[in-house]
Fold these 2 entries.
Entry 1:
Amino acid sequence: MRCPACDHPEMVAVIRDETLSFGGQSLTLHAMHGDFCPSCGEGVWDAESYRRFTEAQSGLLRAVKGDVGADIRRIRKSLKLTQAELANAFGLGKVAFSRYERGETRPPATIMKLLRLIERHPELLAEIRGG
Ligand SMILES: [Zn+2]
């Protein structure tokens, strides 16, 4: 097999560990099988390893998003608000926080900053809700 990137005539079969990183978390996949180019480093995983790679990638994504969701739920509960009440205070759609907490949608950074601010200064909530 020729290298798809640099056309080097010989890809080399390699078994190695591959580490994925995302959002401050990382995960190592052991004994991944692939063909790698000794010239440019381009590589192609075999079907089984590629499946493991994409599964690990989406698992890592869920784990990171899940943490944000748990964070939001914890702050919201400490404020004793329902998802709809919090969404209303921020001028968001009723289901916005349900999506954030389940990890379906990643909340904008501004929402997270506001939430953390309110968590430290709960007295600001009245002002946000009044405004
Ligand atoms: Zn190459």
Note: The two ends are 65 Å apart (CA to CA).
Entry 2:
Amino acid sequence: MYFGTPVVLITTLNPDATVNISPMSSAWALGDRVVLGCTASGQGIENLRRERECVLNFPSPKLWRNVERIARATGKHDVPPEKAAIGYEFVADKFALAQLAPTPSETVEPPRIAECPLQFEAELVEARPSNGADGRTAFFIAETRVKRVHAHRDVVVEGTNHIDPARWEPLLYVFRHYFGTGTDLGKTFKAEC
Ligand SMILES: Cc1cc2nc3c(=O)[nH]c(=O)nc-3n(C[C@H](O)[C@H](O)[C@H](O)COP(=O)(O)O)c2cc1C
């Protein structure tokens, strides 16, 4: 049911203080909250539940190949069998594999991803377990609270703290294909610029 949601690269700290990057597409925002849907077997959700902080990095469409480079990687040393069966491998340095660069955060420990035009530093509010058909925890619905937003200058309306929607383009995940967005169709009455 991947009807089309933005790709977010979640940076979290591993137990040994190295950094993990987890690509996700089950993400939506309301006010200062971003809610994520994470399969329980990922290293990212394990890190988020332990450290209770992360950075939500939003790539632009031109970064789709960088995202895909780490699509079959997990930060889990012991690759879960269902993932190993479809070619996932343990990767310690996903920044190197993705050809992306870390940059320090201001309010959380995990670094941001420099190339992503939008980066939200966030803390975990709650991770609600959700059971699969076998009764075991299959997913976590993780509610995060955004503490600080960073945006590349070229997607900000000069002299304001508004994102220019004509220049910011999310990378969308649509039924397992990557898409950008089209041209601006018009704005809602609440738009501030
Ligand atoms: C574009 C894309 C979108 C994805 N969306 C999700 C998602 O919404 N939720 C999820 O649990 N996994 C999602 N995945 C799969 C995770 O990235 C995968 O489980 C990966 O192993 C997570 O890395 P980690 O184990 O190091 O945390 C997605 C993968 C890609 C490439």
Note: The chain has one domain: 5-179.
